[in-house]
């Protein structure tokens, strides 16, 4: 899991998608990890806020 921590925290897949991609990544409490690490569709730098 430490190798995939960045993908879990900042990746677009969340814990559910990461578990599908990497079978060695799994969670004991699936519901809790889905709430803590949801899929991210955008980050702060990917859009522009006009003033």
Plain-language structure description:
The protein has 51 residues and is mainly alpha-helical. The chain contains three helices and no strands. The protein has helices at residues 5-10, 14-21, 30-36. The mean pLDDT is 77.
User: Helix fraction?
Assistant: 40-55%
* Spatial separation of the terminal alpha carbons: 41 Å
Overall average residue pLDDT? 77
Low-confidence stretches are none
Shape call: globular
> Could you spell the SSE succession in H and E letters?
HHH
Radius of gyration using CA atoms only? 13 Å
Brief overview:
This protein has about 50 residues and is mostly helical. The chain is built from three helices and no strands.
Outline the fold blueprint.
Elements: H1 5-10, H2 14-21, H3 30-36
């Amino acid at each position: 899991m430490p190798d995939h921590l960045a993908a879990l925290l900042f990746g677009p897949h969340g814990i559910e998608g990461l578990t599908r991609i990497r079978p060695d990544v799994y969670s004991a409490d699936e519901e809790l990890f889905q709430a803590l690490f949801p899929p991210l569709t955008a980050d702060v730098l990917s859009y522009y806020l006009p003033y």
